[in-house]
Amino acid sequence: MAPNLSRFMQLYGYDLLLGSIAVFYVAMAPYTKVEESFNVQAMHDILYRRHHIEKYDHLEFPGVVPRTFIGAFLVSVLASPVVLAMNLMHLPKVYSLYAVRLVLSFLMLCTLRFFRIQIRKKFGYQVEAFFSILTAVQFHMLFYCSRPLPNILAFGLANLAYGFWVKGSFYAALRCLIFATIIFRCDMLLLISPLGLELLLSKSISLWKAIRTCIATTLFCIGLTVLVDSVMWRRWLWPELEVFWFNSVLNRSSEWGIHPIHWYFTSALPRSLLVAYPLFLLGAFLDRRVLFYVLPVLSFVILYSKLPHKELRFIISSLPIFNMAAAVAASRIYNNRKKGLWRYLNIAMLGSILISLGCTTMIFMASYDNYPSGYALKVLHRTGQLTNNSTEVWVHIDTLSAMNGISRFCENDYPWRYSKEEGILLDQLQKRNFTYLVNEHSNITGFRCLSSTHGFSTAKLRIGFPPILLAKEPKVYIHGNVENSEILPRQWPGC
After folding, report:
1. In terms of pTM, does the model score above 0.85?
2. Of 33, 63, 224, 273, which has the maximum CB count within 10 A?
3. Which helix H or strand E contains 472, and what residues bound it?
4. What are the angstrom distances between the C-alpha of 280 and each of 161, 266, 319, 332, 425?
């Protein structure tokens, strides 16, 4: 029995490590934010509205730019047996949110496993071990791998591409990146361009075969996304072409904020890579093989830096390659730990890994408090059910609350009813006869504040332990209609 267990851990030990961390993140922070709203609402509608497309959320709230349904279809189909079993057991719908997020996380970790196995074959078991350790002590990759973002769906394909790249299957790597570019994230073009150029200059691929491969894959992907998404959006549509036009040609993405050109290198990468940030630079210096993989990905981040609107999730596909380079450096330092200067580098590396783990813990604690409206709606469902089940309970959810934790998965069945109607003035809410409000304002005419939910505000440095203090403040309030005599006497948490 013991040899079988040892063999199992050798094959899947790292998967259990990374998978358990990802599952922990899903369990502790199940709710989603506005960036994830299209895919999470699409998954809900596929699972619960099925063929009734006219009832789908995206037709009422289309968003700024259209997105593809292909990723949502894949995750929903895989999660559907579990969701069906949950429905038969009459479990709350929010458990289906756990299901789809766990399925997405499983898919992403499978692609990361494929890449990790190629790292083992190319650089050895020890580099694979350090790759897994560095990934585990970082926060963003494992936290985001269950987030239904277009960037994460593209991230999975990027992992496959990296695996094929390290394996030497260069045309397969190009196909994966083209699929990611055409269907999920048009900005992956900034990754495939330097990678393709490097492969051509190093004579790893032939020009004409590469052109044939790229054209054939592009036509297939365009046909697939146009076929699926035109049906779902009820008009002829290639979603990522419209996204490209909006972000790159019109440059409208800057309306959501801008950052300096160096932001990815001075903020995003240090926060996401932690100890792996200096190590990946060292790895590119110590092993010439690593430079072959780092240069195109580094070029991807540099090219992306020219766009004024920046977010960490935009470059999350670069992290696995940087972790691989860092793992090579970590392995070299560990192997030479008994020699001169290497001894001190090894001590510094081990200390930095522990510091990275502490930073990840702090970032998680801040992220846990980043979905206040999801927690507020949970409190409302637990306390706000009326005695007369035949009376509809109408809840109005304002824009901020809809953006910070509430999705269709969080809604209960009859008699609960929900409205996300925008543009209603605060003094007009009383006239609309809502039973409850989930709102960012603490005082609203005709309603009494019943509960407040705190959310992450800022991080403050201080002298003492811990050196960083996470400050919270009230973000979302639950209000009850003062004309409903059944609401006010209940045991509410208070504001």
Report:
1. yes
2. 273
3. strand 468-481
4. 20, 15, 10, 12, 52
